[in-house]
Amino acid sequence: MAEVYLISDTHFxxxxxxxxxxxxxKNVKEMxxxxxxxxxGEVSKKDLxxxxxxxxxxxEIFSKYLINxxxxxxxxxxxxxxxxxxxxxLLETKDIKVYRKIEFSVYNHQFILxxxxxxxIPKQAFNIHGxxxxxxxxxxxxxxxxxxxxxxxxxxxxxxxxxxxxxxLGTNNVNQDTIIKQIKYSDINKQNRLLEQ
Length: 197
Prior knowledge:
Layout: E1 4-7, H1 16-20, H2 28-42, E2 48-51, H3 60-69, E3 73-77, H4 84-92, E4 96-99, E5 102-106, E6 109-113, E7 125-129, E8 146-148, E9 159-160, H5 161-169, H6 176-185, H7 187-191, E10 193-194
Parallel strand pairs: 1-2, 2-3, 3-4, 6-7, 7-8
Antiparallel strand pairs: 1-9, 4-10, 5-6
């Protein structure tokens, strides 16, 4: 059975992020090798990986290289560094789908996936986000409603959704196929899909 993984702010090919986020890498090549090794060490080819924004920078060849060499079926939630000319290159590979946000439900709780943390979250909902690299979410927010999947907070690895579910609901017993179907086929997620090519 396929599993769902989440990761954010990989910034493949972007040198600035090493200094900006105080990442423990000497250069972009070292960062890329570590991130790819960690990704493929966790994720199998049959799994689903949701990239919660800020995936990469580079040309069409580099985008194809990443898509072809990172395990799993991949979905990108557009981040503030995922400019249109970048995600269009990804869409052209036909091996990734790009969304504004994704929503699904587990045990009557809604999970809303956005790159930047939401300011307001419905009562029975949680926000899985990235964007905050070194910083933590401001204390004015109810910390129990958020989960940051930016690589700096997660040992530079994709996080299994089961771990997030355990943290938020105290259980990891869930049919992941049901979640995958919601992500890929629900009407609300179809409306949030970016189709520009």
